[in-house]
Hints:
single chain; mainly alpha; two-stranded antiparallel ribbon; 6 helices; 2 strands; Gene transfer agent family protein
Amino acid sequence: MIEHRAFFGDGEKTFAFPTRELIEELERKTGHGVGALFRRFSTREYSLSDVLQVIRLGLVGGGTTPAEADQLVSIYGVGRPLGEVFAVADGVITALFLGVEAINDALEQVAA
């Protein structure tokens, strides 16, 4: 299973989309196929709802209860700088599409 770990809210969290059903729920909630959603993130044409749903459902897939994921997104997903929240969601959707190594490679390039 592809997992992405990132700090969100009150600590380090695990995000994942381990099942087809969870990916289909993401598509249903955002109104976009997962490929179109990845493209929207890549071109910075995302909506706030896209960002929050990727985080919420990614938390659920990572083992957080649905109620706790909803609460975390309600508290920490709104009222924070959008760039900060987007960075978490972008890491999650990138891991889903390209794997965790792609994120690590990108971080190494930024640090160099």
